[in-house]
Each structure stands twice: as structure tokens, then as C-alpha cells.
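[job 4417] fold queue: 2 targets
>>> target A
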Amino acid sequence: MTELELKYGCNPNQKPSRIFMEDGSDLPITVLNGRPGYINFLDAFNGWQLVKELKKATGLPAATSFKHVSPAGAAVGLPLSEIEAKIYWVDDLGELTPLASAYARARGADRMSSFGDFISLSDVCDECTARIIKREVSDGVIAPGYTDEALAILKAKKNGNYNVIQIDENYVPAEIERKQVYGITFEQGRNELKIDDELMANIVTDNKEIPESAKIDLAIALITLKYTQSNSVCYVKGGQAIGIGAGQQSRIHCTRLAGSKADNWYLRQAPQVLGLPFRSDIKRADRDNTIDLYIGEEYMDVLADGQWEKFFTEKPAVFTREEKRAWLDGLTDVSLGSDAFFPFGDNIERAHKSGVKYIAQPGGSVRDDNVIETCNKYGMAMCFTGIRLFHH
């Protein structure tokens, strides 16, 4: 199959639409179920590159949850703690396979953004992973293969219309890539930069210690940023992205956005949130929305009289700003990657509030000294990679 006709492009009025190989060769994918659209394929192909590279860099199965051509979450297949299993809504599934753990982490880091995601998996999708996918609101999945049991589960999703794509894991794209904007063709070499420990060798802060676990987290951050719409910043802890700020015009806005998502990830683990007395008839997505409001500044939207009764069996206490700050002080040893240099120390100040201790960024700002000084103030270790990771 050298081309695949699509229903429409980014929007229903954009027709005709197709994907095809300019050289006349076969497409490296097979649609096993459903009818993926233009944006589905953009998410699928970007996500596949991300998880393939994560698997190669770490040796662990990887998964990502994509929305609108940027990852909402990305992770490798490390075991979940009891609390993580609970906040990702998989504590009833027993022991998970490594691939299932990777997707539970990728989906669970920012469940609000992952709602209706497109999933990319580095390994053959197994039954355990398919069972997690089955219970979530999602548009589709791409993987190098599927077990018979997994495929049967996925084909039954969305009344038989769930998008399931198989990609040839041995496919190698051309070294030159092209796209058109306003009828004008752009051409560039593919970004084949390898993310490894060598990029983290130039440590410019007083603290020169970046442990192996942090190097893995920094690699996850940088690989995630490589496929995230710029400007972008990524917070990582324990083998998973916990906050991604994508597509912001200002670097500090990236840092704040990603930091607030990292904070929300950690706040969901607080006893006040884990103990929320939800009504038994509240669906998973509605619980996510309610938790997001409860831990934010709009908490009265779910705690006001006449409102709380819709969600809870009894009225929860307010999770005060002081209590939240005290809990967030327990978030430590977070790694942070940036796709371009930090122009001011304010980014480091904001990162510190979310427990960041290790940073990888290109360097090269006229205010590098100020950024380094701010890191030194908090005992952070920061490396200059010398490499920018813009993606558009």
C-alpha cells in the first residue's frame, strides 16, 4: 500500500487528504482496525519516534500519550508503587507487565491532558496493556505488533471503530524530510541527534553530582522534548514525565505550565486527595476533573453547598494553600529538561518550587552566569548540552 486516503485533513473542510510515500514505496504501517485521521497519524508517527528512542536509550519498554502533536505524558516500564497504581486508576488490575506500567505512567501523569489521547507503544501490545487502554477514553494506538488477545480487546473498543495501527519497527525514514506551508516546500535533515550521557558531561554548577537515575530521567526529558512542540520544558521523576509545558512563546511560561502539572501530579498523592469520598456512580473522567478542581484555586466549584453532593458522599475539607505547599515540599530530586536555553534565573526559581535538583539545557544565554548562580543557591546540578531541541 503506497498511499492511504483519509476522511479529511486537520479540519473537515480540508479535503482531499491522504498519507503516501513520495518515492512510491509501501507505507510502513498497516491499519488493523478503525479509520485513523490526519491528526491521528501526526500523533502516531511523532509518538512512535519518541517511544522507539526511549526504548533504545533506556532498554525499557516505553509508552507515550499524545494530544495535538505533543506528548501529554511519556514513561518507561518501571514498577508502580501502591500509591501510583491508585492515582492512575489501575490498582484493581493486579501486577502489570512492564509495557502496561509504562502506559499507566504515561497516561496517568496528566490525566486531564491525556483524555482522548493517541497512544504509542515501543513493544508488542500485550493483553495487560490492552485492558488499560480499553477502559480509557482514547482515539487509537500504534505499536510494532499486537498479541491475539490484545487485538481482540482493542477491536471491540468504541463499538468496533477504535484505531489500531501496526508499524514496521525496521522502517528507516529518508535522511531528508520535507513539508509544505502556504504552497512552499521546506526541506531539512532529520533530527537524528542521539540523546546519551555524553550530552550531560558538561556540568557547570558547583554541584557536579548527577546520579545514574537522574541521568536516565534527564534522557527521558530530552527525548520527550525532541518530539514536543516548542518552546517546551519537561519535568521527570522516577522514569516518567510528570509535567510537560509545550508550545509556549515564553520560556518562563513553559516552566510554570510544566511545573504546575508536576505539582498536580504530586498533589494527587496527598492523603487529602487519596481519601476523597467519591460517590460510587462517578465515572473515572469525572473524578479526574473533580480532583483537578479540588487541588486548584477553583475548589469551591466542587465544594460549595449544592455542588459537593454531586461528587461526594460527604463534604471534604478544603485542601488549603498552606497544606498544599507543605505537601509539595516533599517533592524532591526532580529532573528538568529544556529544549532551549533559560534566559533568566526566574525559570530556576520556579523549578525549585517543584523539587527540581537536576537540569539539562543547551546553555548559551547572555545571562548564563545568572542562571548558574541561581542553581548554586539551591544546590542544583545543571549541565549544558550545547544542543537545541526545537520541534515544529
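>>> target B
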Amino acid sequence: MIKRFSVLYVGQIDLENVGANGTAPDDRRYTNDQLIQTYDNAMKLAKQMDNSGYYCMWAAEHHFQREGYECIPNLTLLGTHLAAHTKNLKFGASFNILPMWHPLRLAEDFALGDILTGGRLIFGIGRGYQAREVETFGSPLIDQVANRELFEEQVEIILKAFNEESFSHHGKHYNIPPDIPYRGYQLKDITLVPRPAHLPVEIWQPMTSGRSIEFIAQKGIKGMTALSGEKVVEQFFHTYRDAADKVGRSLTLGQDMALGFGFYIADTQEEAIEQVRPFHDERYKWFAPFGLVRYVDEQGRMWGEPGAPARTPQVEDGVQQKAWICGPPEHFVETLKYFEEKYPGLEDIVLQWPEGMPWHELSAQLEIFSKEVMPVFTGRS
């Protein structure tokens, strides 16, 4: 049963000349003063969400984006800062990209943030999808086998660091601790200082290609998918539940999952589609070349696979595949109840701030949603 509503802000600044025929992403260049508008946006969003009863503000970690789309390099630092200016809102990492971190430094940072915020940070991890940032930090991404191997070892280390009073790890990439003398004895184990105060740590990971679903289900990591076609969601949710069952985690379909949507509220679906079109198109101008169009054709093939569509999607495609919700509030209620019935274990819905949408427009949208859609679900016992 749906209980919580969150917002995903990937960190875009106020983009100009948006839409299919607007400025090409690779032609966008911004000054540092312009790029740091991201943090004003984040503060305004956090305060409104906190005042309106939203559950969590999710943000994305990215680096070097002079194009202005994703400009937040440190999610723990941002979340800890925003928590000091709000009362109840949680701050989620969507997602810390492990190959760009030493796992112990990331674990320490989160633990400190967990303590300073009184447990208002939510931990999230991912493998990355942008070669410019991951490879620049010296880790593999183009070599997906190597990327996955590194990531899975890092996850193992972080789980030990969070959950064990002292631990050691000796793998292909990390030797923790090194076998060296220290104060007259030989190092055999270490302790994370501090460890999180709120255990076990709730951990989330994105479901994009679907290749990591069995891994996260078996590790007890929760899964999030956003802007995915209905058939993709169905495949991901069933795969997760079945993989969890294999290791003794008996889950209701949709449990430990979060489902995210693009959205626009207007009097009619047609009006909403036209209003959101430039922001939808701006998003896919940037993201489609990374392969992040999670729609399927009639044969169930993901877009971009041989024989399946390879074009940039239109907003009508997203609405047809139920990845975008456009229309009046009652249509949102109807759509969410449809997914609630289909996935009775589903509790978390995430709304995405469409790239290019100005703050004042998103603010008005979130206000309508909090007053006319959320109470239908959050007011239940």
C-alpha cells in the first residue's frame, strides 16, 4: 500500500532554451556562478517538501557537468546541510557511485551524516553510467565486467564496515587492513569510526538494465526504478521478489521497491502533455545517448536493442507506457491506485523534477500534488 511520496532532483540548474529544438546539450556551457544555482534549487525544494509532508528528497551524484544537468558531487554533504534547515524531511542518495569512492571513506562520511542528522539520511549506491566521471576517477565503466566486479567487492566492504564491530577484507582490489606493524602488534582488523547510529542501514540501488537485480535482492538492498515503462517495471519487480525468495526473503510483490514517474498536473491530459513536452524532451536530449530509455516495444524488447526502437522518445510514449503521469489530480489518483493494486507491497512513490522546468513551475506542481493527491494515500490507517 502506497504510504510515502518523495521527489528526485538530479541537480540541474535553470536551463534556458529547452526542448527538442533548443540548445544542444554538448553546446551548453555555464560559469561557476551559474552552476552553483543547483544548491539554491535544492534548498528551496527541501523547504517546500518539508512543509508539505513529503517523505524524502532524493538527489544524484555526478561530476564535471559543465552542461548544467547534474551538478551535485557529494550527496552526504548536501543532505547533512539541508537537514539542518528542515525538520522532518529525509535526504536520499540516488545514488553514491561506488567506483568513484574508496568504500571506507564513503561509509565513514555516511555514518557521520547519519549521526549529525539524527538518522535523516538514506544510503544509496550505484555502479555509474557516465564514462567521463567514473573513468576520470580511475575506475572502470566502459569495461562493464570490471566495473561490476569492483562494485560488488566495494558493497561487501561497506556492509562489513556498517554491521561489524571490527572486520577485515582481503580481495582483488582491497586489502583491509594491510598486514603491517602498528604500535607493537600486527594489524589484523579495523573498526569504522564512527559507525552509523541507526542500524541496519537502509540501502537503495537503481534498477536500470536489470542486470544487478538478483545481486541487490540477495544482499537485502532495496530497488528503485524511475521513468520506466510498465512492462519494464513488471519485469524488474517480479525478478526482485523471486531473487529475494531464493535466499529466504519472502516479500509481497512491490515490497522494498520504489517507483518513480515523470509528471505534470493540468486540467486535461492533453494540456499536461503540451506543458511538460519541452522539459521531457530536454531530459532525453541529455539522457538518451547513455541508453537510459527504459521502454519496451510490443515484443518486450528494451528500446535500443536490435529490432526495437532507437529513437528519442516523445512524451506520448512515456504516457502510453505509464512512465509519465499527465493530467488532472484525479487521473494521478487513479493511476497510483492501479499500481497499488498491481503491486500490493509497494509503499514508495518518487516524482522527478523534469530537467529544464523552472523552479516556480515545479513548486506549483508539488503544491497541487501535496494537497490533491497525497492525502488520498497518506491519510489512510
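[job 4417] complete. Note on B: The chain has two domains: 1-85+208-381, 95-206.
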